[in-house]
Amino acid sequence: MARYRAVFRCFSGCPGEYPLTQALYRCPQCDGLLEVSHDIEALRERSASAWIKLFEDRWMRTQWPYGSGVWGKREWVAPEVPDDSIVSTGEGGTNIYWAERLGREIGVPDLWVKLCGNSHTGSFKDLGMTVLVSVVRQAIAEGTLATRVLCCASTGDTSASLAAYGAAAGLPVAVLLPRGRVSTAQLVQPLAHGARVFALETDFDGCMEVVKELSRRRLVYLANSMNPLRIEGQKTVALEIVQQFDWESPDWVILPSGNLGNAAALHAGFRMMQDLGLIARMPRLCIAQAERANPMYRAFVAGSDTIEPVTAQETVASAIQIGNPVSGPRAMVALHAMKGVVEQATEQELADACARADRTGLYTCPHTGVALACLFKLRAKGLIEANQRVVVVSTANGLKFTEFKLAYHERRVPGVESSGANNPIFMKPDVDRVAAAIADMSS
Questions:
Q1: Between helices 157-169 and 125-142, what is the axis angle to 10°?
Q2: Which of 9, 271, 394, 406 has the most CB atoms around its CB within 10 Å?
């Protein structure tokens, strides 16, 4: 069998390559972003059909580490990480939900939702964190890492995932959160896992600046998606979507995005499958942003390839409340390669989209609401056609956002008219009154 390998290389093309176990987050020559580069020619020694068979044979098996949707595709992710360094919670392998009723309502019967929030910590972040923490564990075993402290800035989900995987690996974790801007469920997760939680009087972008400086001083290992190891794990979402459709690409993928790493990750996955002959084409991409945190949308509307930072305003889609996205250049490449568009959703639109989807059997986080609202807009414009297969990526579990759900139904979301509110009916335990109310349901 060919020996597969992957290294860090400059995303902009500077010469040089660096081992994945090196604590490196930016190109040493141009200070630009890095990417994980695979030996594609070695991977081509196995045919497309052979890769498909291998991935199918491993799919969600009990044999370590193939209970993970990420490590079942290890040759395409981090091929040199040994079994005893892998830190996994069985991430990936999440359901792709046929949203039949919602799809019929909007005239797209082939509508699906990839439920990435049905993961260990309740978000797609687990897919990237398993790779990052496993590589860190390998580097520690090899004696090549200067610090054992893992650190991230977060709007909630990244901190929960890093804390869980750090705890599983026995590594110390520090997380920096914008004070008062994460849900209770997101705050309690890193606390429960024993992470050191810092609530800073700033937004996500301010937290990120602190983490970057701490990593520059070599006090922490940076675990945000600036680190391309995160992208490698998250790209398996693309592989899973295609696998769940019997190795065919959908026509569209709608993706809520803030820091834009997930857009880059999806492109990396689809591009690799196309390069190795597993698919004939990539789907089109819609990057969906909240109107109050929309730097990529603004660049797209202006026809610019440069994403100018903005000051993100408060949005209920808190995980994508990011005004200065680290992975902007990566996402712009993804957008062009996948013939993509960028759309935005107001607070009213995303809240109503959540309520509408929930009434058809889904239970959506506000970020998925952003993606759904953008889907509705693209369908209304005719850009998405009735006969096309569309996948919405749901990035987190709706149970993390109980406060938002309750506030919507109690009509307490600022600036939002809760047209889909559904409140409890309070009455005495009178059978006839309850029966009369139930009878109204069928009229």
A1: 40
A2: 394
Sign of the alpha-carbon torsion through 203, 208, 209, 215: positive
What's the pLDDT score for residue 211?
96
- Lookup: tokens for 176: 């920096």
Residue 301 to residue 283: CA distance in whole angstroms: 21
Best CA proximity match to 75, nearest among 42, 123, 122, 27 = 42
d(CA 244, CA 332): 27
Rounded Cα distance between 354 and 368, Å, is 7
3-state secondary structure of 98: strand
pTM to 2 decimal places:
0.95
pLDDT tens digits, 187-215: 899 999 999 999 999 998 899 999 999 99
Bridge-based pairing state of the strands 6-10 and 18-19: antiparallel
Distance of alpha carbon 232 from the chain centroid: 12
Q: What is the pLDDT of residues 257-313, one digit of tens each?
A: 999 999 999 999 999 999 999 999 999 999 999 999 999 999 999 999 999 999 999
As a whole number, the mean pLDDT across the chain is: 95
Q: Where are the alpha helices (DSSP H) in 11-67?
A: 40-43, 48-58
Q: Which two tokens stand for residue 131?
A: 């790779």
Structure token pair of residue 437: 């109310």
Q: Which two tokens stand for residue 333?
A: 């490449």
Beta strands in 12-106 (DSSP E): 18-19, 34-38, 96-98
**How far is CA 406 from each of CA 3, 314, 360, rounded to the nearest angstrom?**
53, 18, 18
* Encoded tokens for 403: 């406060």
Q: In Å, how far from its chain's centre is CA 198?
A: 23
pLDDT digits (tens, 9 = 90+) for 312-347: 999 999 989 999 999 999 999 999 999 999 999 999
CA distance linking residue 285 with residue 15, whole number of Å: 30
Whether pLDDT at 250 is above 90 = yes
**157-169 vs 184-192: helix axis angle to the nearest 10?**
20
Hey, what amino acid is at 357?
A
For residue 283, cis peptide bond before it (omega within 30 degrees of 0): no
DSSP state of 419: T
Q: Which of 120, 24, 372 is nearest to 364 (CA)?
A: 372
The secondary structure of residue 312, as a DSSP letter, is: P
